[in-house]
Specification:
39% of the residues lie in helices and 25% in strands. By secondary structure, the chain is of the alpha+beta class.
Length: 468
Amino acid sequence: MKKHPAREFTWFTEDEGLLHALAAVRHPAGERRHYDILEVDGKKVFVKSFSEKGVAGRIRQMVAPRGKKEFSIARGLRSLGIPAPLALGYGTGDLVSAVAESFIDGKSLLEHIKEGTGREDLLGRLADLLLSLRNRKVRHDDLHLDNILVSGDSLYLVDLHKVRLKRSFSNEDEVTNLTHALGIIYNDITKHERDIFFDRYGCTAETREKVENAVERLRARWIIKKMERAFRDTSVVIRKGNDIFIRGMENRAKGGYEATIKEDRKIKVERFSDHVKKTYAGRARLKRAWENHVVLEYLHMPVAPKAFHARLPSGEGKGYISMEDLQGKGEELDRFLDRNYDSMRRGEQKDFIDSLAAFFLGAMTWGITHRDLKACNIFVVASGGFRLLDVEDIRFEKVTGDVLKRTFLQLCNTIPKRISTRDRMRFFLRLSALISTDKKRLMREVLAGSLKEPIVYEGVSGLIVDKW
C-alpha cells in the first residue's frame, strides 16, 4: 500500500481517488470517537476515528492502532465470506487512528427486532450468521445487536475492533458469541422464537443451558458498562467539556425560556420553546438520570422523555438535562383517569388498562422499574403509549415479588378511588404473570398495605386526598 500524509492522519489506501476526501477528515479535540460520512465519486464512505488517552492508550496506539486493527479484521472477515464493511483504508496519527469503509445503508438488527415485524425470519438469519462465525472460528466480544446491521437480505458485522479470528474455537467462544448476541433481546422474545433460533443454529442442549444461564449476568454487566460510559464519547454519546449530547441531538434544545414549571430544594424544571430543562441541586441525581437516559437510548426503549443534552455542574453552576417537552401531547395518569375514566365505555376502560399493563410488561421484561411510581410519574401520550417521568428514579433490576408489591402499592394509592376493583385486579393479574409467585398472598399484602395509607393524587381540579 502507498503511504499518504493527511491533515491529522497519515493514510494508507490503495484508492488514489479517495485521498482528496480523506484529507479533510479531522478528529475533533476531546472526542473519543468520531464519525463522518463522505461522498466520493457518487458513493458514500463511512469514516470512524478513535483517540487514545493515557499510557495504556499510547501503548495501544504504538502496537495496534484501532483504525488499523478494524481495517485488517474487516478484510479478514470478508475473505472468510462473512458480511462486513468493505475496508478502503486506514489512517494513523498522534494518539489518533481511523478506518475508512464502504457505507452500509441499513438499520441495526436490534431496531428491526424491536419493531416486531418479521422477527422469526430475523432470528433465523441471526442464527445463520452465528453459525457462520462458529464454523469460521470468529469470536466477537461485543456482539450486541446494535453491532449487526440489516441491509437488504444481509446481516453485516460492524464495530470490529473486538473481533478475533482464531485458529481454534472452543465451547466458551461459542457461548460468548451466542450470549452477547441474545443477551439484550432474550427476555423480550417468546419461548417459541427462542426455539426457532436454537433449532436453526443447532447447538447442543448443554450449550443452550449455558447461554440461558449467562444471559442475565451479561445484561447486568452490559447496563453497568453503558452507565460507566454515559459521560464519555461512544456510538451514542458525544462529550464536549462539561456538555454531553446524545448523538444526532447536538442542535436540539436551542429555544428561549418561557416559564418555570416546578421548583423545590431538589430540582428546578423550566420550559423553553423547544425543550424542557431539568436542573438538579445534587450531582448524584443528575448522574443517575443521565445514566438512565443513555441506557434507554442504547436499548431503543422509548419509555421516558427523550433526552438531548446534559450539562455537568461546574463551580457555582448546577447541572441539568435538556429533554423532550411533552406539553400538549397528553397528561399524567392521575389527571387522565380523573378526567376520562367515568365517560369511557366498559370496553374502552378494559382496553386502556390492558394497554397500561402491556407498557409495564414491556418495560419490566427488560428489567426497567421505577422507585417512585406514583400515577403523576406516568404520562399518558394522547396519540398512544406511555412515558415514565422522573427518570432518575428508574432502576434496571430483576423483577421480584417485592418490586411488584411496591409498584402496585404506589399506583393503587395515587389514582382516583372510583377506579373499579375489577380494573385494578385486571392490571394486577397481567403484571403478576411476569414471575412465579403466590398471587393470592401478594394481593393480600397489597390490600393490607393500601389500607394503611390515604389516597393522594392530582385531579383535574387540584390535589385530592381521599380515604378508603
